Amino acid sequence: MGKLIVNYSPHILHTDTTQGIMLDVIIALVPVSAFGIALFGPYVAAVIAVCIVAAVLSEYLFCKIAKQPNTISNLSAVVTGLLLALNLPPTFPLWMAAIGSAFAIIVVKQMFGGIGQNFANPAITARIMLTVSFPEAMTAWREPFAWLNKTADTVTTATPLSGGDFTPMRLILGQHGGCIGETCAIAIIIGGIYLLIRKVINPIIPFTYIATVGILAVAFGENPFIWIFTGGLLIGAFFMATDYVTSPTTRKGQLVFALGCGIITALIRKFGSYPEGVSFSILLMNILVPHINSLTKNKPFAWEKANHGKKN
Amino acid sequence: MSSLRQEFSKGLILENPVLRLVLGTCPTLAISTAAINGMGMGVAATLVLLGSNVVISLLRKVIPDRVRIPAYITIIAGFVSIVQMLMKAYLPTLDKALGIYLPLIVVNCIILGRAEGFASKNSVLASAVDAIGMGAGFTAALVSMGIIREFLGAGTFFSLPVTSQFIEPIKVMVLPPGGFFVFGILIAVANSLARRKGRKPVDSLGCHGCAGCEACPAGQSEEGKLNE
Question: Which of A96, A241, A125 is CA-nearest to residue B177?
Fold first, then answer.
């Protein structure tokens, strides 16, 4: 006789796993990382490796010490480390990168209860912590391909957001100063499209966010092209603002969230003392997510009729 | 004698005013950027607490119940003025570092909390011991926060350079966010120490976390919980 299983619904489970989603994100980040290494040299590979190893090690040790089930196999620590590395300047000291990774995992993620419980995106928060702590190291931009020129491998340059003249082609291909993973727009967009096709992310947040920044750039009399294709906007919009844990659950809420991110980014870029505002805007909106969620709750079908029948 | 020792030791961990009762958070976060500031603030508050607890305990049968809060504040303000004048005269640099937080000891809820919750209904000796214990707990919390934040954020230990020459310090630790990081982690440590002694962790700023609990009707009704 066959075994009869009696259980509560749902009876059909989706085959997505945390590990599978994280693997998709890692695959989507491969072109960005590859372009970063090509543009800024082999040292960048070391930064990426240190960030990933430090993140996984921190999670492993924290779970071990706090006697919690070990969660390193779901690859979320790898994603956090990789995203953080891509948000660092190409000459960033390795020990500072390791501190950032450990901070992201231990303070921002594990201390709030681990994956799914953190209220802010760990990589974004760690980036801000590093920006505030090590302002010089965090703004040491390098000229792309300078590493190929053996005589002058420390050519420093400015990010286009703080001034300078750039042709659109150079911006799209990433031939300008910036963080490891934020300069090459093409690679980020390829990764973003991969995530959209795999349905890992939905298009509401990235497109609303980028469009808001573009429109506000025009409104402020700035060049929208430079605003969209430089700085951390693309990588932030596709990979950081779409983090499941720290973005709203409803479509309406995601729209509000992305609009807020876009407005804060534009305001910081136009009026703030920092040239870039993507990380601050995402962190600020992360904090508002619980409120956005409760204010944009979907009403059940016919709820209004049942409760306010007299209106109709 | 053993009860006096208990009155003293409870302030260190089990009822540590900062880490277990979550009182006096404002000066704690603001001045713990350096260990020496934490020490100065802790000692100043302890002196005020000792003076006010003793005087309020002496006057506890004289002060009418309806005007007790203004009376307590007046007594506390008197001691704060004395401490402030002494500090201005003998430790002017520390006085500058503590700034507005020194006169603000007047409205520090730890001191008013001990006046209301302990000194107003206990003997002079017990009140003095309670003040020293609570003051020691406050000082210990401030100094440990100051040591951690100063070491990580400036690379120094009581202003002596330790790692500041060869490692760039993590500046965020001496900025307000760093204060909250260290504060949260130390609360967790204090909770875990207290749990080892069989006490519940402080998981919210609920009614029973309040220092005025013993005097408050709402607290009295569920007093059993507090005394567990």
Answer: A125
Q: Which long-range contacts (CB under 8 A, 24 or more apart) does A154-160 make?
A: A154/A91, A159/A230, A159/A231, A159/A275, A159/A276, A160/A226, A160/A230, A160/A231
ipTM reported for the complex surpasses 0.90: no
E strand or H helix that includes residue B161: strand B160-161
**What percentage of residues in chain B have a pLDDT greater than 70?**
86
A99–B170 CB contact, under 8 Å: yes
- Which residue of B168, B174, B192, B203 to mutate against A (max A Cβ within 10 Å)? B168
Pick the closest to residue A54 from A115, A103, A108 (CA basis): A103
Spell out the domain ranges in chain B: 2-226
- Are residues A129 and B177, on separate chains, in Cβ contact within 8 Å? yes
Query: Would you say residue A59 has pLDDT above 50?
Result: yes
Mean pLDDT of B27-47: 91
Q: In chain A, what are the domains?
A: 18-295 (1.10.3430)
Distance from C-alpha of A55 to C-alpha of A65, rounded to nearest angstrom: 15
Query: For A64-78, A162-176, B4-18, which range has the lowest pLDDT when averaged over its residues?
Result: A162-176
Average pLDDT on A272-294 reads 89
A65 close contact with B: CB closer than 8 A: no
